[in-house]
């Protein structure tokens, strides 16, 4: 139960994960990411709200993510936490959304985004570009982190 009394199901996907082919989509290499920050003096850090849950599953994947409880049968509509391929799937989505900006004005590591620039004015321009892309694709960030 959540604080407001609604139900939230938590899936233990460990057995399921043993039968899944591992997604090999590449995650960024942290040291390569840090090297891109040379000369940057201003930064804005963003964190996607409930990261994985922002990614919709296709119909076929939804059926594979079905589960049964005493209250009935359900299926996941969104990428679940605990699924072996969730980090790679989400990284792929973030790269698609921010791809044109990635590694030039923004660094992306799964659900974390770092906007960087040499001047404050440039940082604000870049931040607006990131927010425009996020809005275009329905990506939401935690307000506390913005």
Automatic annotation (TrEMBL):
Residues 1-146 form the Reverse transcriptase domain. Pfam families: RVT_1. CDD domains: RT_LTR. InterPro entries: RNA-dir_DNA_polymerase, RT_dom. PANTHER family: REVERSE TRANSCRIPTASE DOMAIN-CONTAINING PROTEIN, TRANSPOSON TY3-I GAG-POL POLYPROTEIN. This is Reverse transcriptase domain-containing protein.
């Amino acid at each position: 139960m959540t604080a407001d009394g609604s139900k939230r199901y938590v899936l233990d996907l460990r057995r399921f994960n043993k039968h899944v082919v591992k997604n090999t989509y590449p995650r960024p290499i942290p040291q390569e990411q840090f090297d891109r920050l040379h000369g940057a003096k201003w930064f804005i850090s963003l964190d996607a709200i409930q990261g994985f849950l922002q990614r919709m599953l296709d119909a076929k994947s939804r059926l594979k993510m079905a589960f049964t409880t005493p209250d009935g049968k359900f299926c996941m509509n969104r990428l679940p936490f605990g699924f072996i391929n969730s980090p790679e799937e989400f990284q792929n989505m973030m790269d698609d959304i921010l791809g044109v900006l990635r590694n030039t004005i923004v660094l992306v590591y799964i659900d974390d985004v770092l906007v960087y620039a040499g001047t404050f004015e440039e940082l604000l321009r870049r931040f607006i570009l990131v927010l425009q892309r996020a809005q275009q694709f329905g990506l939401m960030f935690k307000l506390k982190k913005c």
